[in-house]
Amino acid sequence: MTDKMRAAWFAEFGPAADVLNIGELDKPSAGPGQVLVRLHTSGVNPSDVKKRAGSFPDLLDNGPVIPNSDGAGIIEAVGDGVSGSRIGERVWIYQAQFGRSFGTAAEYVAVDSARAARLPAKTDFDIGACLGIPVMTAHRCVFADGGVDGQTILITGGAGRVGYYAIQWASQAGARVIATASNQVDSEACKSAGADSVVDHRDTRFAQSVLDATDGKPVDRIIDVEFGANLATSIEVIRIGGTIATYSSTIDPRPRLPFFEMMYKDVVVRFVIVYSMPESAKQIAIADIERALEQNLLQHRIAKRLPLDMIAESNELIEQGKIRGCAVLTID
Questions:
Q1: Strands 108-112 and 34-44: what pairing?
Q2: Class of 134-275 per CATH?
Q3: Is the pLDDT of residue 1 over 60?
Q4: What are the residue boundaries of the structural domains of the chain, listed by start?
């Protein structure tokens, strides 16, 4: 048995085509509390791309990094403290490349057993690679502040990676969902996911369009992909005591908060990132994801499948912002 594996890595920050390498690295082994997973797929998320570009300046302090947090495969070995019954189990991986150098863009990954969740037999490995950041983020945004049955929720970027799943979680839990999209294809995707109404966030009457869709009633919650850019609209359409759950603010990464407007509306702002979710929230999300997969309750959008050798191209697709669904690298 070889002690090498095929992998992608970067040893410096910069453009994907310049810094991402493909070759052989040492195959990891399962340490205490870990499982060794033979990966079939690896998910490429915006956070992975930003790390490679240098968003975490100290990321390379301990040497080269194998990118990507999400993936799916089969457990091949277990470390001390992990039941041998897990060997052969199909799993999806999340949070692989966080606080360490070794992600899922490789033939193998050794991760904490808790980061390898069971993948139902009928669920493709492609889908498994989309569950970590997109689906867990969406779950946290929808449910972190209690049940949503009977509430009205505005979900911006509803055709995006997170928004698409947020629509499904919210609508299936009994919420009325107003989604945003800027073209007919994305609008139809939002509706197929369960949105009751879709408005154009590029419309100069964005806020009024939202209120028109709710018959003038303010929304209970907002799940926002562009916190800074949408803040003025959010304050206008949210009810007193409402919650904004946000996971991105790319257009305006350092927004200025209109303190008094937000204070008088008693607005709660929740910032969501999978890495920092409480472990209890992660386990609740995993349980709900497994149930949803078993019952075939979730729709998925795989926008692009590429071989591991084309990881640079996958990064460029994410950076260009032209794909709405998940980008997946195939490793086998």
A1: antiparallel
A2: alpha beta
A3: no
A4: 4-130+300-330, 134-275
Locate all alpha helices (DSSP H) within 33-79, ordered by sequence: 46-53
Quick one: average pLDDT of 166-170?
Answer: 98
Residues of 243-279 as b/e, b for ≥16 C-beta within 10 angstroms?
Answer: bbbbbbbeeeeeeeeeeeebeebebeeeebebeebee
**Residue the block writes with tokens 């991105």:** 248
φ, ψ dihedrals at 56, nearest 5° = -115, 95
pTM over 0.85? The answer is yes
Neighbouring residues of 251: CB distance < 8 A, sequence distance ≥ 6: 226, 228, 229
CATH number for the domain whose boundaries are 4-130+300-330: 3.90.180.10
Instruction: Tell me if domain 4-130+300-330 and domain 134-275 are identical in fold.
Output: yes
Residue 12 backbone dihedrals phi, psi, to 5 degrees: -150, 160
Per DSSP, the chain holds a count of helices (H) and strands (E) of 11, 15
